[in-house]
Amino acid sequence: MAPSHNSPASPSGLPLLQVLRLGLFQGCLGAMAVVFAGLLNRIMLTELAFPGLLVGGALAFEQLVAPSRVLFGQISDARPLQGRYRVPYVVGGSALYCLIAVLSIPLIFFVGDAIATDNSRAFWGGATALCGLFALFGLAVGMATTPYLALVIDRTTEQERPRTVGIIWCMLTVGIIIGAVCIALTLRSLDGVTDPAVLQPVLQRFMIQLAVVVLALTLVACWGMEPRGGCRSGSRNPEEEMTLPRTWALLTSSRQTFVFFGFLVLFALGVFLQDPILESYGAEVFGLPISQSTILNALWGTGTLLGLLLAGFLVTPRLGKMAASRLGCQLITLSLALLFLAGCTGQVMVLQVVMVLFGFAVGIATNATLSLMLDLTLPEAAGTFVGAWALAQALSRALGKLMGGGLLDLGHAFIPEGLGAGWLPPAFPAYGFVLFIEVLVMAAATWSLGAVRVHQFRGDTADTLARVLALELD
After folding, report:
1. Radius of gyration of the chain from its Cα atoms, rounded to whole angstroms
2. Domain containing residue 366
3. Sign of the CA dihedral running 235, 236, 242, 243
4. pTM of this prediction?
5. How far apart are CA 143 and CA 137, in angstroms?
6. What burial class does residue 417 get, using C-beta atoms within 10 Å of its C-beta: 0-12 exposed, 13-18 middle, 19+ buried?
7. Residue 6: inside a domain, yes or no?
8. 222 and 267 share a domain?
């Protein structure tokens, strides 16, 4: 007998102004990401002389806890706080990651002092604590972002959801740009400063100010967005829940699941391998001070925003999702090669132009890949597949941050510093090694995309879903 359906109340929909207000959360998340993935890793690598593997490893721990997002999603579905399922977790997670951001500054400088004084015991203890703190930051971000995305689904209709998702994704990029500009303007006094006694109080004050602003804007974004006791879009009968056996059966029902999972791993790795070393690349190869190296993120973000908009309105609709994804991957490969060649020149203007081009290519590829991801997701099991795709991206971003720092250390250790002396910047060979590997990874991602078959995926998984549900209902 077929199960009875308790249809949840239809979402009321969100006017444009409320969508923009809700998007403030994403903007704050983008600004905080610039600080963690941009400013702090530059301070650790260049001013405090951290080993690249430690910096990449600490940043990787933020992504390695990504599987916890499934748990936070389930908790926000099942356990309301004060009658609300989403907003308390969003605000609580935001408050937690703001606190962790403030606490990270003294810990970073403690490890820096251990390195400067050659105190191995303090170094290993501090390094362990730093990795743990970054893992807690990742958990806090997951606690906030997963219920936030569920809130977006709860409050939007199926017809307006693509527009809403597009707007808040652009708000994330705008937050990255604004965060980078604020860092450049606020920390201009630190240009050329390497003394930790001067750096630490200025950075600590900046981080406290940023945390207060982020938390305040998060409260503004969420205020009144969820009625007390509101019905969730994901409510369903126990017979309709995706249990672990059903989930595993679906994920393993088509070879295309593994093909696309592999593509996403290579794609994210190809985009983010340079992430932990970019600011130091600007500092050591191009001679950029702290305020100017952070602007690289703003240039990247500007290009990404332009790419997202162009792809959404023109490229993807005209070429199709697969062709647009392939074009985006090819453009990323080309722009990474240009980023490598820019280091050979040592010219700041060349680097800035290439960063805009790189962001533009990433924007086109991201839009097309996200659209392709929706095609490779069954509506009846959207959470299952979106969770798998999100896990692929998070793990590969973690691997990218770890490998970026590790490859830089290998470059410093095995490539002679004098290589290319007279026509190459002295610090370029080690950074060039990382970028060369990244070009190869992105080329591999482009090749793997050719094996993705959307129609085969849909046929395999739809048949399996029908068979599994029929067995459960017998």
Report:
1. 23
2. 242-474
3. positive
4. 0.71
5. 10
6. exposed
7. no
8. no
